[in-house]
What we know:
The protein is mainly α.
Amino acid sequence: MKPTTIDFGKIERLCRTVAPIDLAGVPLYIVPQSRIPAQFGGKSVCDGFTTPSLDLYLRDVIGPAWQGRGPCMVINDLPDSDEKHVDHDVEQPDPDYLELDLCRTALHELAHILERPKLYRDRKEVEPQRIIFESLVISHAVSNEKVDEPTVPPFQGHEADFIRIALHLRHRADMAGMLVPLYNFCAGRLYGLSHANRYREALGTHHTEVTAPLLARLQGIRDTMSAAESARRRLWDTCTDRALLARRAEINDMLTEAHKKASEIRDELQSCRERAKSDRADVEWAKRADRDRKQIEELQNRAMQNESKAKDLESDLAKVEKRIGKLERDEREVRELMLEP
Ligand SMILES: [Zn+2]
């Protein structure tokens, strides 16, 4: 069998990008069909397949890359034709097209993996002979074209949950800028299914149906809150309780005064800090210029005076800000009283 030049690491990265939490800390085995002996799935006619114990069936093929149990998928990298399972020595397909096809198959198989209750089946107690037997059964199943069974719907294994997961994964791939073909993505016509686009459209409508009432509710809450705010304002504006009105006016006057004071202190504080900074620079300059000690001392004193004044102003400002906080609380209390009937 001719090996392909496909970068399977890239396909694994795609899977981990779209399912980062599900696959965190777990090995993911993506096995190219071209590496599998015919008797263990190498004669598969499928684009890909996965089973909950596939990593055990293919342990020898995985070889040194084996890092313990993990979800496993086979993806068919052999030329896409009827010769797939007859002649493995045919010409290689265009690697670019093949890679995109394999990405699609990988996401499809990943959707099957994620649809399981667990990523893989725990087989601690199982006999090795049992694993060989199972792998031969699977190999036989994937080596033969699907036969229509009247009792089994053709889409078996690709029902609503699978389609939802698969399209979700593909949407995440889109968001990550990794474009994966949609054609046959959800198994398609051979399985009695619609085109994946139709499911996407249906999901889009479903999403709107589910979220629209929530959005409407949010809007309702916003409208109600805004109406309540207007109602409160009306009550304040039309309040006739003279005592409360006088108290509110008094507090508001004090607040205006306090804000004015704070603003003055801030301005003064800023210029004081600037003066202190420039005095310090003058001291440095005088030292470098070898000025006499008296002049340097004078400059230092000036800087210290400004620094000390700045400290006093900071403390004054803190007091005024505290007072503003208290007045604002008082004002809120008066407004609450104004709402009482
Ligand atoms: Zn499938």
